[in-house]
């Protein structure tokens, strides 16, 4: 039932639904109405019904959603059952943090191997993931199917490494380098972690909060 | 001219405009039409005009936007001129990566100090930022204005530390702990870095790409 083209906004809400449904499951909730789900997520119930209607019909009028069933549908939409294999290139602070702390398996992704150039990390195991010398990257890409590469190398070599990945058939790059990669959409999907976007949104909302508090204080002082 | 409540979607696009305008400035572009800006960002020109109209009038009909001027307006909207001060709590891999690689100053934020418990990092300087023992946190919060705390401690103590920050007047938390903090909106603004949301969106788009390629290959095989 998947339609040709679902808007990016809808896609971006799917992981949020997943997190909320996991939370509901953990709290022992079996069934939830679109109204209540919306209330908890700051969305309207019609927005929620519209989002899911892009992929089929998951609820039953008047009965709400089965939490486990809806969670399964969303996991399927997000490709969590596709056994995507992942490598990580660049075991600096961010790369190491992702290996040690990010639970790829929980989302159905398999972290196969990591790569770096520094002798002090090459050959080591981090949380069960072997770090190889970058010179072995080509060989691994030729002998294994790799769907996604986590790119956490220094900025200066980001595009060079991205080019090598794409030329060896990697179809998706999760980009932590903070630069825009010179990779076309037809070559690979690039998903950027933009820390600055997140901090600047925080700055906006903090400014709004401080302004509101200052206005309230000024009003009180006048009374 | 700021209106009472601008939608979250509009706010989230502001940092993207900022990045694009910085890119245009670096490329020597002085002026750009909403049509061309939209084309480069995958938005419609009416969407762009609507976004900016939430904050005032930045362009002139028929003349487009002055790149430097618009960049300044957006920086102002995002609070980049408010001199927000920042501390970082938890100098593990992620914390260290943010200190070493994220350019807070570039966005107008000042990273004052970092905190940890481990003797091997306490007392050290990382890229000019001093790491203090966590026991000094309370004292610093009482003697300095701290607007934002970067929270990059282990999950298990995340809520405990968040509570201490809020109780000492920190109004915003940039949360890297991957758990939902038990902090109410009236206490502090919490902005989460959700790595999983980003990876799952990547998984969706990769699945879509692979399906399209498989369909094209099947079609060709039948011909």
How does this structure look, described?
- Two copies of one chain form a homodimer.
- Chain A is of the alpha/beta class and 223 residues long.
- Chain A folds into two domains: 8-77, Winged helix-like DNA-binding domain superfamily/Winged helix DNA-binding domain (Arc Repressor Mutant, subunit A), CATH 1.10.10; 85-192, Rossmann fold (3-Layer(aba) Sandwich), CATH 3.40.50.
- Helices cover 47% and strands 16% of the residues of chain A.
- In chain A, α7 (155-167) links the parallel β7 and β8 (172-175).
- The longest helix of chain A is centred in the last third of the chain and has 28 residues, at 195-222.
- The mean pLDDT of chain A is 92.
- The interface between A and B is large, with 55 and 55 residues.
Count of discrete domains of chain A: 2
Named at the architecture level, the CATH assignment of the largest domain in chain A is: 3-Layer(aba) Sandwich
Could you report the average pLDDT of chain A, rounded to the nearest whole number? 92
Helix content of chain A: 40-55%
Helix count, DSSP H or I runs of 4 or more residues of chain A: 8
Distance between the termini of chain A: 61 Å
What's the CATH H-level superfamily name of the largest domain in chain A? NAD(P)-binding Rossmann-like Domain
If you consult CATH, what is the topology of the largest domain in chain A? Answer: Rossmann fold
Give the oligomeric state. Answer: homodimer
- Rounded to the nearest angstrom, the radius of gyration of chain A is 22 Å
Structural class of chain A: alpha/beta
Q: How is the main sheet of chain A built?
A: 7 strands, mixed
Rough shape of chain A?
globular
What sequence of helices (H) and strands (E) makes up the elements of chain A?
HEHHEHEHEEEHEHEEH
For the largest interface, the chains and their residue counts are: A-B, 55 and 55 residues
Output the CATH class name of the largest domain in chain A. Answer: Alpha Beta
């Amino acid at each position: 039932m998947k339609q040709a083209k679902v808007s990016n906004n809808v896609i971006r809400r799917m992981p949020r639904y997943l997190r909320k449904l996991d939370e509901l499951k953990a709290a022992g909730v079996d069934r939830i109405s679109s109204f209540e789900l919306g209330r908890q997520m700051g969305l309207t119930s019609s927005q929620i019904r519209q989002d899911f209607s892009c992929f089929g019909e998951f609820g039953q009028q008047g009965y709400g959603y089965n939490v486990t069933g809806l969670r399964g549908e969303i996991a399927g939409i997000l490709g969590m059952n596709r056994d995507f294999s992942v490598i990580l290139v660049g075991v600096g602070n961010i790369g190491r943090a992702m290996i040690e702390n990010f639970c790829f398996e929980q989302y159905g992704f398999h972290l196969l191997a990591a790569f770096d150039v520094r002798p002090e990390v090459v050959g080591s195991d981090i949380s069960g993931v072997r770090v190889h010398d970058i010179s072995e990257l080509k060989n691994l890409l030729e002998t294994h199917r790799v769907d996604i590469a986590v790119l956490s190398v220094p900025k200066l070599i980001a595009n060079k490494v991205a080019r090598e990945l794409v030329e060896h058939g990697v179809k998706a790059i999760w980009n932590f380098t903070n630069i825009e990669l010179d990779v076309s959409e037809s070559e690979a999907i690039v998903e950027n972690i933009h820390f600055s976007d997140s901090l600047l949104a925080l700055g906006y909302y903090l400014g709004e909060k401080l302004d509101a508090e200052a206005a309230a204080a000024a009003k009180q002082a006048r009374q």
